[in-house]
Amino acid sequence: MAQGARNRLAKLLDGSEQRGDFSTRIEVPAQALRIEVDGVGELPLPLRAPVTRKLIAQARQARFGLGEQTLADTGVRDTWEITPDRITLGGHDWQRTLSSVLDGVRTALGLPPTTVLRAEPHALLVYGKGQFFLPHQDAEKDDSMVGTLVVSLPSYHTGGELVIEHASRSITYQASRERLTFAAFYADCRHEVKPVTSGYRITLIMNLLAERVRSAGEIDGGPVADLARCLTEHFAQPAEQRYIYDRPETTPPNRLVYLLDHEYTQRGLGWDRLKGADATRAALLRQAAGQAGCEAVLALAEVKETWDAVPPYDHYDYYGDVEHFNDCEDEECEGECLLDPDGEPGAERRRSGDFSDYELNDLIDDEIILGWWTRPDGTGGEQISLPVPYAEVCATTENRYLTPYQSEYEGYMGNYGNTLDRWYRRAAVVLWLRQRSFAARAEAGSEGALRELQGYLDAGELELARTLARSLAPIWKHHGSGAAAAPLFAAALRVAVGLGEADTAAILLAPFGVETLSERHAPDLAEAAAWYGRTWTRGTVGSWFGAVGARTGADRAAWLESLPGLCAALRTADGDGDAVATPLVEGAWQATEKQLTGWLGMSREPERHPGMERLGTALAHLLQAASPKTADTITTTLRGLPDTGLECLLQALRTAARRPVTVHDGTPAARAFQSLADHCEARLTADVARPVRAADDWSLAPAGTCRSGCGLCSDLDAFLTSRTRRVMDWPLAKDGRRHIHSCIDLANLPVSHTTRRQGRPYTLILAKTDAVFTREQAARVRTETDLAWLREKWPRPRD
Length: 799
Prior knowledge:
23% strand; single chain; globular; 29 strands; 37% helix; 7-stranded antiparallel beta sheet; 7-stranded mixed beta sheet; 799 residues; alpha+beta
């Protein structure tokens, strides 16, 4: 079976000759290095406290990277730093010694003998008593950076151990007091510096850069033939299903994804820069691929696993929650307290995100997605999006033995829970049969596959291009939206135009989001519309509109801002650009109208107002892009909105006023904006004319009867609509109090609600606040301000 081939392949690679570890340590005599620091001079080795204090006087607080930021936080990294431009390294034996050390490091780390290592100074660090650096990973600061070299200068100190971790293993290094100590490790290894307990720890940090100087050739020996037989069997047998009750597959897997052990960046992923055992195993797989008729590329994978897991025993109950203690003073707590009265730290660890000591039971689910890979011809790489099924994955080192970069635990929730989600970033060798190369790459959304199709079109091989393009129908899935997907969309659009086959062209273009479109695509879009007709064009455009969620909202807003320019480019392009522009605007309006309806149903002004303003900005762009007929349709709907819709319309007018060139007299949008401005002015004028609330009028709008028919909401509305009642004492059981709390909060009413915990049931006390008046006063001021602005910026045209 296919699983047997995958398992044998993983075991063969596990048993292959290991050519290195993730870290190493080397000592040399201190006399080999002569080091000078600006402002201090030459450093006598071993270092003593008086000289070290001079170094500190020349140093600054060390920083560290967090995402896009560079921070200084002594709670994370507490050490002194001197930059490399102030350091001079020398000595008549230094270069020879360093070269010998780097050769030893290369061998110990398992890098190929064809690789030459260079060490580039990064910083001189001084750790005093109590100083430390929490666990972290080093950023790869150069495309050729593979690791870090820590050169510990001899000094008298205790503590300050360097602890390096990888794949559930940990190694601790202590610097020598008399000799230079070199500790080298791969950049993806987590490591930390323990607090110094006495004296000073001084280290020179160097980046390890790897350069290939000659062809690697084939690895001598090794199980290449056996691996090739495993590959052949894997691609010949039907794909195995994970669970016995799944419907059996009748077709072989499309690819094999072998997960490597180390982490890599896009810049650092290359056959010549693989680390340790990864280098050995990848080279063996690459040779076996050649014998089995396969192509091989390197890829980056995002892995998520969900485990059935339980925390270690520490005041946790059977379901993974903190125990409820019987002496809790709240009689209605019902087990909802998180900590016992004595402050046991049971919940603190759960908030910290450290789940390394949780017990893993069964793997519930996993998900692997390839997001980037190298090209088969070795010319760089490309973004992809490819979920990998169970039958295509194997690894020598299971994920559970690696350190996840993120974990989340969910305790027992009644029907589910006690689950631990773990996320990993792993590299992989991806292999497929050479004759299936086109489909294997195309399924991932590869530009290379589209370039191949374009090449056949350019060479006049139309039927071959059509045949290959038709073969994409079952595998050409969603390929993203926004700027990242724009190059892939442009390539697909050119191929779609060249195919001259409507159904196949629609298949190629359907998997993209509308946010991908930009002015650069206008000529090809107009040409496609002219070639395939308006019915085809409307259907294709409609396929690009998906739901706007948290992940796509920013992309959609940015795209709407560009929509006027895109539609203008379409309408002036050769072909039938209007056939694309019209359904684009109509589709954007339909999506925006749905969002508008949702926000209008939101009674809480603090949440509703920002959403309505965002939609107002989008509406302005829509009207600027619309044809006169579509603009009239949109305007008619907007004029029929309730009063709460004014904040959306005013924002649309403000956005348009900032770009008057797009709405001056004579443009299609001018009449629409003026119509909205006249409508808003009339509504605001009527609002200003309403009488001011009397000083003794405490009435509010009713909250409305809820769908549950609870019988409480009518009593709440009677209190709210009363002009004279300000306070209401309401004996209610716990569920009733919760329901009224929810009604008040959801409606954002100016009513406080507290519980008097005396008697049975407890009493809910409702009290109208002064916000009854201050809110209305603030609203009147806003209305007057908006009306003055509107009359200045959008005056009614004279007859």
